[in-house]
Amino acid sequence: MEFHGTMRVNLRGHLEIGGCDVVDLAREFGTPLHIFDEDLLRQNCRRFHQAFVHKYGNAEVIYAGKAFLTVAVCRIIQQEGLGLDVVSGGELYTALKAGFPPDRIYFHGNNKSYAELIMALEAGVGRIVVDNFFELEVLARLAEERGQKVPVLLRLTPGIEAHTHEYIRTGQIDSKFGFTLPNGQAIAAVKKVKEMPGLEYKGLHCHIGSQIFDVEPYRHAAEVMMAFIEEIRNTTGLITEELDLGGGFGIVYVEGDNPPPIEAYAEAIMAGVCGEAERRGLKVPKVIVEPGRAIVGTAGSTAYTVGSIKEIPGVRKYVAVDGGMADNIRPALYGARYEAILANKAAAEATEVVSITGKCCESGDMLIWDVALPEVEPGDILLTPCTGAYGYAMASNYNRLGRPAAVLVREGQADLIIKRETYEDLLRYDVLPARLK
Ligand SMILES: *Cc1c(COP(=O)(O)O)cnc(C)c1O
């Protein structure tokens, strides 16, 4: 198994993260427990900042908060000089409560409500990324009513779709997000913005997929967007100052995953943007990227306690842990793969192949099929690395399981950043109507 960040095996033969023994963390905070390696989290931010902002100047890195957002995370993101991308009133509220500078917040979403748009306008968020014609009309009206001039980016569907190992250029696109580029809706949207006194056209956005292991789709997306920027200039005279190329940068979940380094993504993107700018006689726009997974994914791990073990001779050994699909839906949702390590036997050799299952009442509640581990016993602390992105963020209370706690570890110190949900918390929103009493 690949070790990330500050993970190491200590003298007790236990796994350590951020200088904290994972077995001790499990004892102190209980399990399941999300453990965030602060140094690695900051290092991921710095690598992006270095590769884009430091190297090219006119660039910005904004963290896609949907991957994992708490007030503590907002603070770290702010300290590291990144902007923030939010997709709901709840995420925006979290950022504002954390004191995140509103002008560094980008507001995304394909169905922002009136209330969310008003909240964003009142807060003075930096950019609203307009997704569709309905939103354009609503936002323009709200802005005019309030006498505001709202800076916007337009989200486009450029006809490039990328997934882990491949990408496709589709002529006609079938996506719920954004103004479609190839069929003329995108240019129509730009023309509309130009006519709307409440809106100020700043630039364009696209997001071509997630967990992308190839730099080519980014270069391609940059080129397609730059061609469109020329079309905008030629047909409307508008200058596109900002080009946001979204997130999707891949990370290592399991052995064999081989994403390019962040610097290679940056180079491909900047080559595409600058090359096309020169060829077409355009000003190089400010380039924005929105990593989510690549910031928090590897920085987070989940510790569980092993409970029941069921062996079906000749078939499979099921090792059940005290969490599962409620705290990590990704394996059940789209077959995501993880590795595992026994934190209390971190130095031991693997001797058996087992499958890790959760405690939810669903056969699909599997965390890992077939993983090699030292002999597993009830009470062992099993850690799945790389659960920092879309783990807690997608967690549910299925089976009325309380959502886990999360701790931030660094140099031997562990601090809670999310409290564990208690039984009382689970009842907080239950209401018993008088006639049932
Ligand atoms: C999900 C998303 C991101 C972040 O994606 P990652 O794969 O986590 O990097 C960025 N921008 C937009 C618009 C998204 O929807």
Q: How many helices does DSSP assign?
A: 12
Q: Which ligands occur here? A: pyridoxal-5'-phosphate
Largest sheet: 9 strands, mixed
How large a portion of the residues is in β-strands, by DSSP E? 25-35%
User: What radius of gyration results from the CA coordinates?
Assistant: 23 Å
Considering DSSP H and I runs of 4 or more, what fraction of the residues is helical?
25-40%
* Secondary structural class: alpha/beta
**Would you identify the regions where 5 or more consecutive residues have pLDDT less than 50?**
none
The number of distinct β-strands equals 23
Mean pLDDT: 96
- Tertiary shape: globular
Alpha-carbon distance between the two ends: 55 Å
Description:
The chain is of the alpha/beta class and 437 residues long. The chain contains twelve helices and 23 strands. Strands 4, 16, 17, 18, 19, 20, 21, 22 and 23 form a nine-stranded mixed beta sheet that branches. Strands 5-6-7-8-9-13-14-15 form an eight-stranded parallel β-barrel, surrounded by five helices. Strand 7, helix 5 (114-123) and strand 8 form a beta-alpha-beta unit. The chain is globular, with a radius of gyration of 23 Å. Bound molecules: pyridoxal-5'-phosphate. Pyridoxal-5'-phosphate binds at residues 64, 66-67, 85, 108, 207, 210, 246-249, 290-294, 389.
